[in-house]
Amino acid sequence: MSSFPRINIPKVLEAQAKYNMFTCVRPVAMHIENPHSLLNMKLCAIKDNICGIPEPTTCGSKMLKNYRSPFKATVLDMLENYGTVIVGKTNMDEFGMGSTNTNSAFGPVYNPSFDKTQKKLSKYTLSELQDNEETYDFPKHIAGGSSGGSAAAVASNVVDFALGTDTGGSVRLPASYCGVVGFKPTYGRLSRWGVIQYAQSFDTVGILARDVDTSKLVFDYLNEFDEKDPTSLLPPLRKRIDELAESRNKGLQKLRIGIPKQLNLDVDSKVRESWIKLISQLFEQDHDIYPVDLPSIEHSIPSYYTLVPSEAASNLARYDGIRYGYRSESDSKDDVLFAPTRDQGFGEEVKRRVLIGNFNLSHEAYISHYLKAQNLRHQIKLDFDKVFRFPNVLTSSQPTSEGMDILIAPTSLSTAPTVEEANSMTPLEVFVNDALTVPSSLAGLPTCSIPMKTPEPIGMQVIGQFGDDNLVLNASRLIQQSM
Ligand SMILES: NC(=O)C[C@H](N)C(=O)O
């Protein structure tokens, strides 16, 4: 049966006007009901690099502003079949490149949770604020990126959940800044088919929601092998993971929790305090806490920012103004159309990464940069394998009973900066901001950022071994419920 579900359009448009979280809103969402599904009638927003609704798929870029994909992403198709209502497509850093969501052709996304927090902490009463909203000019904070629109849509209560993509933290960082749950599953769990590639050996579809229960529900529905995605985890591996998890029969009463020493470096005092508070709480609840050593993760940022631009440079070579997307009208004397097309169609950050990536892949730098970064990635994976109790089904690691069930670390170095602060950051400072999220991206590990009960939103990550998504989600739920 198809129907027109009642979306509160004025509420969506009001939130859109304040926070700029959508690249397009569907005024009336036609949808097919599925009364057998727990996702039936749930409202959802989709990051605008996931192809397949009649509206364009833009990747937050001028290059694809009018691009209508002939494909429908498997994850979107599944959601529609389960009766989910797609409210709109969400704003993002162009092609997923950024941590601030200020690199979008649609303008920045603003942080709804910070907005609420500032109002709560201000000296004005609620009715004074409501009556004179424009008069009180609080500095706007960023939502974080690159799935900033998805995080803001969830934080402002206009959808039940949203899909994002996480290459090096793009689901978790905005979740942390906006005070919502951001789950990045194991690489290969959810289908990437129909998701526009940024860096294909990292890109992972992730889920943003207000609670872990909803994230788990959506994950359970989408967690299936897809033969159209060559990187989808094969059924025998999925089966092996399930068998191992069953044989371990791990309850949640006494978890072995690792605290990565190397991630203790540059976090600011508010984040550190909240981290310590959570660890003490877990200790009091009778879990075992241990410091763990992951020496190679100090090289995560250089490794990530060498490999990812290299993959991106190859992936983005297709935007040349000939096949699809933006085409320059410049009648330059050059007979090369693609140079002005790419110059005008891409934003600054994308151009920077394409240049870096092509250099890394050049004859000059391939061994000294690209291969070195691959080696570091391998070392990082090995380091993680040494600390977990659950074996890695890809590397057949031999874990010991002294291994950890999960690791806990902050998601971001600080709370969300203001838009002004973000705009004054150098590209290198923006890269460094991902220090806490890229290690598990390099190793493809399931990781969930959970909002702490702090006045300003702060997220803590639960990191698990490759394939151990259910333990990560169950432990995250335990943490969220016991706060
Ligand atoms: N896409 C992501 O996961 C965000 C990361 N900051 C990047 O620019 O690569």
Kindly describe this structure:
With 483 residues, this protein is an alpha/beta fold. The protein has an eleven-stranded mixed sheet, sandwiched between helices. The chain has a two-stranded antiparallel ribbon with strand order 1-3. Helix 7 runs antiparallel to helix 17 and helix 10 packs across helix 12. The two termini are 41 Å apart.
Largest sheet geometry: 11 strands, mixed
Helix share, percent = 25-40%
Give the ligands present.
asparagine
Q: Count the E strands.
A: 13
Distance from N terminus to C terminus (CA atoms, Å) equals: 41 Å
Summed over residues and divided by their number, the pLDDT gives a mean of 92
Give the DSSP E fraction (strand runs of 2 or more residues).
Answer: 5-15%
**Helix and strand string, N-terminal first?**
EHEEEHEHHHEHEEHHEHEHHHHEHHHEEH
| Shape type | globular
Task: Please give the count of helices.
Answer: 17
Low-pLDDT stretches are: none
Any idea what the radius of gyration is?
Answer: 22 Å
Structural class: alpha/beta
Strand order of the largest sheet: 2-5-4-6-8-7-12-13-11-9-10
